[in-house]
Amino acid sequence: MEHLFKTRLGWAAAMTAAMSASMTGCAVEVVEATDCAQCSTSQQTVSASDPGEAAACAAFEAVRVQQTPTAPWSAGADRCDLGALPEPTRQASIGWVNYYRRMAGLGAVAEDRSDRAPAQACAVLLERNGQLSHAPPAAWACATLMGRDAAARSNLSGSPGFPMSPWHSVRNWIDEARDLSNTLGHRRWLLSPELRSIAYGQTGSFACMTLGLGARDPRAPQWIAWPPAGWVPSAVMSTTWSFSRPGAGAAGTQVQVWRDGVAQAVGMTVRRAGYGDDTVSWELPAASDGSVYRVRISAAGERAVEYEVRPTSCSRR
User: Fold this and answer.
1) CA–CA distance from 119 to each of 113, 124, 154, 191, 300 (Å)?
2) H-helix or E-strand containing 116?
3) Which residues, listed in sequence order, are joined to residue 307 by a DSSP beta bridge?
């Protein structure tokens, strides 16, 4: 499914919704730079009965059950009407975003109710024209100033005939399997310490999520990784891994990864600035259930960061 994102220069309106104090990400370790020789030789195993794994799987299942709406979008009498988006669908989009943010150690965001209509106008605009655009022309069917403006400041997702849902849209924005802009912009904004509020619009096959930015949350972790440290359900894993913090990707930055103590060949990409925090990324094939992936990020003059990611299918419990 196609989805892309870009920013509009100068757009950073602070929203009034306060972020939740909940910071439930897994503990990570910042260590002094070493040669980390032990990382490439030690064999690490995990237990299927580890309470951390059980908690991670239970948290995902709870969100999956609670955030699965039963009613789809209903089109209006006129093809350009906003139609009716059920309240459970709106809340599900917020629930999924905050699930991913909690996983990454970030606080929750709130809904900006004043952006409900713009987000829905954006989704209808994309639906009626069957394509994505952050700069839809005025000549498009159902084009309104409200919908066009929302498209310029939203994450977009969809393609004609695709059965859209909050799970599909948010999952794809975090996964970035079709990162057409080559920025990881969707993920970086949704996992940004500057994100304060969102609003969700959806039709049968398209979705828009407006992004309200504000001051950086002082409670946010010093860096953000996806997949995050700790146990991670396979359903939310990605083959594109990323590490974000101010200054990430500076000269001399190096990414090293070990799977169960065996070094993996990874190539680092420095993502373009201007989409949340500075970010580096690397590709790994589909992660193996039960394996331990140790990641080490180092840069000249900086303290190295190490953390472990433990994928789980949640079927071994």
Assistant:
1) 10, 9, 8, 20, 43
2) helix 116-129
3) 295
For 174-183, write each residue's pLDDT tens digit.
Answer: 999 877 677 8
Reference 180, options 133, 227, 247, 120; nearest CA is: 133
Residue 269 has pLDDT above 50, yes or no: yes
Q: Which residues contact 188 (CB under 8 A, 6 or more apart)?
A: 242, 244, 271, 275, 276, 277, 279
Residues 6+ apart with CB under 8 A from 65: none
Strand partners, 84: 74
Instruction: Answer whether 0.85 is exceeded by the pTM.
Output: no
155 shares a domain with 98: yes
Q: What is the H or E stretch that residue 61 is in?
A: helix 51-66
**Same-domain status, 149 and 128:** yes
Residue 37 lies in a domain: no
Residue 135 inside a domain? The answer is yes
Examine the domain organization and report whether 158 and 202 are in the same domain: yes
* Strand intervals (E) in 128-278: 154-158, 195-202, 206-213, 224-226, 230-233, 240-244, 254-259, 262-264, 269-270
Contact status, residue 133 vs residue 208, Cβ threshold 8 Å: no
Q: Are residues 83 and 196 in the same domain?
A: yes
Q: What is the pLDDT averaged over residues 68-85?
A: 86
Q: What is the pLDDT of residue 67?
A: 77
Which among 213, 241, 275 is the end of a domain?
A: 213
Paired strand residues for 200: 209
